């Protein structure tokens, strides 16, 4: 029998605090070798490929989490086109969990909710280990959409945010963000009306936009800043990458084949040797970035299925404990 | 809402004849470019990797089927170890189907039943196009387990089987096969007590065993035979591959990275240039093998997710038409 869970059941048992802890543990597991995460495989539905013309993709992201002894996969879509016209969010997804010894399927649940939480949590956990021991920081945020909210909520689980500068091409979105997040951000939220105002005196810059025009300029970045290009397309100038004192990624293979560094990697200007360390190595105390106060750091968490599967297993255990889920004879096992 | 289907619902709507037709159409689509099938990604749970030690794997196999306008993924496990001890079959799997324009998930169903049918169907469809116009043939079969039955049933959908030689390391299994399949095979089923008796006067040799010892010897293969190494491990001598007059595969990328040709490909003795054509090119009349009566042909269908997704979509349409399935608010969409 396989348990099928509704989105409401899932949302009732797991929150950002849980996912920040899970992501931290799972990054450590990746570095220790007890979390297995093959490079994700993309089904291109027109994001880059000419056919089919749906302006989207699905990524298959399997993982094994040794410290939970669970195998799972997230299949996650990011589609614009008709989906955007229908008013649906960019991301949709499902997660399957399996017993890795028996090969039986124990759970089917949503994958988008966990994707959103863990994408925020990745940034927060990376900042935790880059700024070891720090209690508070200032954040610059490009993009006041759903991920903008989630990134901020995740960072607020780990740090007091003293100042948050937010810019959105649609200023009312930034103003709405300011209202929405006023109880999450301890300090002040400053709405910027030009993108170059954001990097003022911040410790971290996060870009979560649909931009493809490399809007983030290298000349804006001060020493002592970590830049997180989190959007799906080209948000930052190549020079932001090339001038970095350290490059931190979540998964070396994926970082070279997808996201902000892909074009430089394809051109041979960035290689595996250009990558300083992984978030996992920082989490496991296997690498020390030294004094980061005057460093320009680039951090790229492309996203690994392990983060999703680990959070899904926590949710699964809690839902089972609460008697949630519906037994379904999907596979006859 | 997502429809969840039980294994009984699925089995009631689709049979081998359906899947043979679906596989034929989908191979053609692969060659025409209207079926998109990225190389599968393996989560190794100890099949080759040292950790975790579960003697198995899960493969993530996404595909887009243009002629059905459906996207889907099969996540399929092949596990020995504890699963075998529990008396469960080698393969377990689940299939998810999505609307590729909207990114919404429309179906969750079993993946093992369709895997078994389509793995048989692949062989039958390949033989159909290699032996164009032939009505009957003789088959040699190594392995009288579940896939032995399925391979035979599939070939019997396309050809009259005049003679079938079967060998199994466990002779009672071969004798049971003889009983089980006497109404499926038109002609005689001959149980062999030594492996070298199988290739006598056959047009096709199929190995569907768990052997890892290269038991199929090159010297046994006569001209005018197609060899299908269908097991998960090393069933045939490298010389069987190297002496072939033609090599036909389902997916060039996968054929070099998995299955019978992997070790030769890793050693550089087989490359993409060694591959003569694909089953899809034969199905689409884009390649002609010429007179095959004196040729030694090797055919390796590693298995593509497209075959599973296409068959699952047929089953989905039929189950919906019959009012089957249970609506479930898994994703909130």
CATH classification, class level of the largest domain in chain A: Alpha Beta
* Number of β-strand runs of chain A: 16
Elements of chain A, N to C (H/E): EHHEEEEHEEHEHEHEEEHEHHEHEHE
Rg of chain A over CA atoms, rounded to whole Å, is: 19 Å
| CATH domain topology of the largest domain in chain A | Rossmann fold
Distance between the termini of chain A: 6 Å
Largest interface: A-B, 65 and 65 residues
Largest sheet of chain A: 8 strands, mixed
Summing up helix and strand content along with how strands pair, one would put the structural category of chain A as alpha/beta
Q: What's the CATH H-level superfamily name of the largest domain in chain A?
A: NAD(P)-binding Rossmann-like Domain
Low-confidence stretches of chain A: none
How many domains in all of chain A? 2
Number of helices of chain A: 11
Determine the mean pLDDT of chain A: 95
InterPro entries (chains A, B): NAD(P)-bd_dom_sf, ODC_Mu_crystall, ODC_N
Protein name (chains A, B): Ornithine cyclodeaminase family protein
Pfam family, one (chains A, B): OCD_Mu_crystall
State the main characteristics:
about 325 residues, alpha/beta, eight-stranded mixed sheet, 2 domains, homodimer, ornithine cyclodeaminase, domain 1, 11 helices, about 35% helix
List the helices and strands and how they pair.
Two copies of one chain form a homodimer.
Chain A: E1 2-4, H1 7-13, H2 16-32, E2 35-36, E3 41-44, E4 56-65, E5 70-79, H3 81-85, E6 91-98, E7 105-110, H4 112-130, E8 136-142, H5 146-158, E9 160-167, H6 171-180, E10 188-191, E11 204-207, E12 225-229, H7 238-242, E13 246-249, H8 252-257, H9 262-266, E14 277-278, H10 279-283, E15 296-300, H11 305-321, E16 326-328
Parallel strand pairs in A: 1-7, 8-9, 8-11, 9-10, 11-12, 12-15, 13-14, 13-15
Antiparallel strand pairs in A: 1-16, 2-4, 3-4, 4-5, 5-6, 6-7
Helix pairs in contact in A: 2-4, 2-11, 4-5, 4-11
Pfam families (chains A, B): OCD_Mu_crystall
Protein name (chains A, B): Ornithine cyclodeaminase family protein
InterPro entries (chains A, B): NAD(P)-bd_dom_sf, ODC_Mu_crystall, ODC_N
């Amino acid at each position: 029998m396989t348990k099928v869970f509704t989105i409401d059941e899932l949302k009732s048992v797991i929150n950002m605090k849980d996912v920040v802890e899970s992501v931290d543990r799972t990054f450590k597991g990746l570095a220790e070798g007890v979390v297995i995460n093959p490079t994700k495989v993309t089904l291109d539905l027109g994001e880059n490929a000419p056919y089919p013309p749906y302006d989207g993709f699905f990524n298959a992201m399997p993982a094994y989490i040794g410290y939970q002894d669970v195998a799972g996969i997230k299949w996650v879509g990011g589609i614009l086109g008709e989906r955007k016209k229908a008013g649906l969010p960019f991301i949709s997804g499902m997660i399957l969990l399996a017993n890795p010894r028996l090969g039986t399927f124990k759970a089917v649940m949503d994958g988008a909710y966990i994707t959103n939480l863990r994408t925020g949590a990745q940034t927060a956990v990376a900042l935790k280990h880059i700024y070891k021991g720090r209690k508070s920081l200032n954040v610059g945020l490009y993009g006041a959409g759903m991920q903008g909210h989630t990134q901020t909520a995740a960072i607020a689980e780990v740090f007091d945010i003293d100042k948050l500068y937010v810019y959105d091409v649609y200023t009312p979105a930034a103003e709405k963000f300011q209202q929405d997040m006023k109880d999450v951000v301890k300090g002040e939220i400053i709405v910027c009306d030009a993108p170059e105002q954001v990097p003022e005196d911040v410790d971290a810059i996060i870009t979560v936009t649909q931009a493809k025009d490399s809007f983030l300029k290298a000349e804006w970045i001060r020493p002592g800043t970590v830049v997180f290009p989190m959007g799906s397309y080209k948000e930052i100038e190549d020079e932001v990458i090339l001038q970095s004192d350290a490059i931190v990624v979540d998964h070396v293979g994926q970082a070279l084949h997808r996201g902000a560094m892909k074009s430089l990697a394809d051109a041979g200007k960035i290689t595996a040797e250009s990558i300083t360390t992984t978030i996992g190595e920082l989490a496991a105390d296997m690498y020390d970035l030294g004094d980061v106060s005057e460093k320009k750091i680039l951090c790229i968490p492309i996203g690994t299925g392990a983060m999703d599967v680990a959070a899904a297993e926590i949710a699964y255990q809690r839902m089972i404990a609460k008697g949630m889920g519906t037994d379904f004879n999907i596979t006859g096992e």
